[in-house]
Amino acid sequence: MLRTVGIGYVTLLVLVPVIAVVYRTFKPGLTEFFDAISTSTALHSYEVSAIVTVWSVAINTVFGVAVAVLLARYRFPGKRLLSALIDLPVAVSPIVVGLALVLIYGPNGWFGLSNPDGSGLQFTGAKPAMVLATVFVSLPLVVRAVVPVLEQAGIEQEQAAASLGANAVQRFWRITLPTIRVALTYGVVLCLARCLGEYGAVLVVSNNVEGQTETAPLRIGNLINNEQDPNSAYAIAFLLVVAALIAIIVGAVIRGRQEA
Questions:
Q1: Contact 157, 240 (CB under 8 A)
Q2: Residue 228 DSSP one-character state
Q3: CA angle centred on 249, ends 248 and 253, rounded to 5°
Q4: Whether pLDDT at 111 is above 70
Q5: Are the CB atoms for 113 and 120 separated by under 8 Å?
Q6: What is the reported pTM?
Q7: Which pLDDT tens digit goes with each residue over 241-259?
Q8: What number of other Cβ atoms are within 10 A of residue 148's Cβ?
Q9: Average pLDDT value for the chain
Q10: CA dist., res. 63 & res. 66, Å (int)
Q11: From the centroid of its chain, how far is CA 122?
């Protein structure tokens, strides 16, 4: 009984919407599908999404590993507060995140880099703002994937290496990194999927300019909201669904290896 309820719940919540998207995508035909995903505006949205995603994943990988090592290996005042702050993006709406970034770094913000007249360095409506917003919303994924592995591994091997004269860099590359390799890959895959699908925070900071700062999710929203071409919106959404499914499958394989 419980299994039936669980399967039915997942089917209604996940499987049915995915099937509906696939149906609406290919209903007009394959020719229309390929035409929709290959327009100049769509291609530019893929490019912007790729740029934002690559930079966001790279930043979260580097700082995620650093924070994970800090939380798992060291004791310091404010450790619990830092751990709680890492999970903040899970509880805060992405729209709120984007608004907060605009209030802080926008033209009239606390640390605004541009002037109200448009001079100076532009934050809103620029890719650095989109990267920063995406980094924030995907912050916990790498950290939470790596911390449990570091805690389980302990510090005995690193202490032994230190006693033999290995410095911090050598210990990281030869002991820590091989230990967290599978967990880090899993976290990066999840982070990649999250960054590709981010909408709310990027919508606020990007100004959502077609052909300039429009990502693939923003392109879908614009096509639906403006009633321009719903079929194109479904086609682009299908590509994002495929990317998410690939990430899920890769993540499942990696987790299986980690558990083994």
A1: no
A2: S
A3: 115
A4: no
A5: yes
A6: 0.85
A7: 888 888 888 877 877 776 6
A8: 14
A9: 84
A10: 5
A11: 23
